[in-house]
């Protein structure tokens, strides 16, 4: 059935991370009993569901998605006591990373067919918008295939193909929620129009900023973000009294448990990371309180949160959550009985209390086993209290 475009602008996100972490075996259905206050707004975020070569071949996944984990997450989310306003899919939804667009087109076509099938994904019938944005697997190519300076480099045709297909596909489903991003040239020096790869989305008093963390500025650089465009967005939000919260999200994190690699491979590139984090903490440049509540990312195949960071010599209190545990091969640091695949639910209570709930299911051996069970509640974080009447 045709899907409505993503025009609803009602959502909410995350504020500042504090402590309070508790493990648990609570099911999705049981989680309705944990909320002390009614939920006013909620949303789901996770990334990195693509398989590796062995996993795709073993499971005959045409999309290269970890189908069992993806569909189980969709089903779990659909059973939540309150449906989220959005489900954000934070990149690496397919394996791709091949020159040109043949592999990307084939895999995205199968992925869209899977994700928009109401018989497989109950969120479709319930009208919950899916918002997908790019990771390195959608936009880059490996060194051996692309004559790259580093391990990966930009795949130019993919930068145009992604927005075209994800907005206008056979399922008539628009996975892109904005088009006001940076265009070719400008202060960020982009080689092409990226207005639907990075963009902002205003929902009531909350601004969401989606970033392409592999913006194309030359043939080699990876891990780049459009800092000048981001600065304009954040400074405008700081001046706008109608905006209370800003949430920035992108595929690559500012910090990662993954170490080593080329600049921009594991994280946002070091030449920009410090300035990026400084901007999140002090958008106006005058020391006034930032409206940015968190940076949300994936890329590292794990789940983690960091309440305070020091990046490129810049220390601050804007937290980072990495939710890259959607179903891709788990990191070496994300193994054992405490590791899990799943998704993150963020809720804002009627009293303004904000929580992040991490749901997950055990990672089997091999990781691409296609039998799954419903996710259980693994951790709950109280992120802060933002009273509805606060200025």
* Integer count of domains: 1
Work out the strand percent: 15-25%
User: What's the CATH class, please?
Assistant: Alpha Beta
Round the Cα radius of gyration to an integer and report it: 19 Å
Which descriptor suits the 3D outline?
A: globular
CATH architecture: 4-Layer Sandwich
Structural features, described:
Helix 3 packs parallel to helix 7 (156-167). Mean pLDDT is 88; it is low at 1-26, 28-36 and 387-391. The longest helix has 14 residues, at 102-115. A hairpin with a 2-residue loop joins strand 7 and strand 8. This protein has helices at 53-59, 67-78, 102-115, 122-126, 136-139, 143-146, 156-167, 227-239, 270-281; strands at residues 26-27, 39-46, 87-90, 130-133, 140-142, 152-154, 199-203, 206-211, 245-250, 292-297, 303-306, 309-311, 314-316, 320-323, 340-349, 353-362, 376-385. By secondary structure, the chain is of the alpha/beta class. The protein has a single domain (26-385), classed as 4-Layer Sandwich (Purple Acid Phosphatase, chain A, domain 2). A seven-stranded mixed sheet has the order 1-17-16-15-2-3-4. The chain has a six-stranded mixed sheet with strand order 7-8-9-10-14-11, covered by helices on one side.
Helix-strand blueprint:
Elements: E1 26-27, E2 39-46, H1 53-59, H2 67-78, E3 87-90, H3 102-115, H4 122-126, E4 130-133, H5 136-139, E5 140-142, H6 143-146, E6 152-154, H7 156-167, E7 199-203, E8 206-211, H8 227-239, E9 245-250, H9 270-281, E10 292-297, E11 303-306, E12 309-311, E13 314-316, E14 320-323, E15 340-349, E16 353-362, E17 376-385
Parallel strand pairs: 2-3, 3-4, 8-9, 9-10, 10-14
Antiparallel strand pairs: 1-17, 2-15, 5-6, 7-8, 11-14, 12-13, 15-16, 16-17
Helix pairs in contact: 3-7
């Amino acid at each position: 059935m045709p899907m409505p475009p993503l025009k609803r602008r009602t959502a909410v996100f995350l504020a500042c991370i504090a402590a309070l972490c508790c493990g648990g075996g609570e099911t999705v259905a049981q989680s309705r009993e944990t909320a002390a206050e009614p939920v006013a707004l909620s949303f789901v975020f996770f990334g990195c569901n693509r398989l590796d070569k062995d996993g795709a071949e073993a499971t005959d996944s045409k999309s290269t998605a970890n189908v069992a984990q993806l569909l189980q997450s969709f089903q779990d989310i659909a059973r939540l006591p309150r449906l989220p306003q959005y489900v954000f899919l934070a990149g690496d939804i397919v394996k791709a990373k091949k020159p040109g667009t043949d592999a990307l087109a084939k895999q995205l076509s199968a992925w869209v067919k899977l994700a928009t099938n109401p018989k497989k994904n109950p969120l479709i019938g319930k009208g919950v918008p899916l918002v997908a944005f790019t990771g390195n697997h959608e936009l880059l190519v490996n060194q051996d295939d692309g004559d790259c300076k580093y391990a990966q480099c930009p795949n130019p045709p993919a930068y145009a193909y992604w927005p075209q297909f994800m907005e206008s596909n056979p399922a008539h489903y628009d996975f892109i929620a904005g088009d006001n991003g940076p265009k070719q040239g400008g202060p960020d020096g982009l080689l092409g129009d990226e207005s639907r790869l990075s963009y902002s989305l205003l929902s009531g008093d909350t601004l969401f900023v989606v970033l392409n963390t592999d913006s194309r500025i030359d043939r080699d650089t990876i891990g780049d973000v459009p800092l000048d465009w981001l600065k304009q967005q954040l400074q405008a939000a700081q001046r706008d009294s109608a905006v209370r919260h800003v949430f920035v999200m992108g595929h690559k994190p500012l910090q990662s448990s993954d170490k080593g690699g080329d600049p921009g491979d594991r994280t946002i590139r070091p030449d920009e990371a410090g300035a990026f984090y400084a901007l999140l903490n002090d958008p106006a440049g005058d020391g006034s309180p930032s409206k940015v509540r968190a940076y949300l990312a994936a890329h590292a195949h794990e789940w983690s949160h960091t309440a305070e960071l020091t990046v490129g010599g810049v220390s601050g209190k804007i937290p980072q959550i990495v939710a890259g545990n959607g179903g891709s091969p788990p990191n070496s640091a994300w193994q054992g009985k405490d590791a899990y695949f799943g998704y993150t639910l963020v809720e804002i209570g009627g009293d303004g209390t904000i929580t992040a709930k991490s749901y997950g299911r055990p990672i089997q051996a091999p990781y691409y086993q296609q039998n799954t069970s419903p996710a259980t509640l693994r951790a709950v974080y109280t992120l802060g209290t933002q009273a509805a009447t606060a200025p």
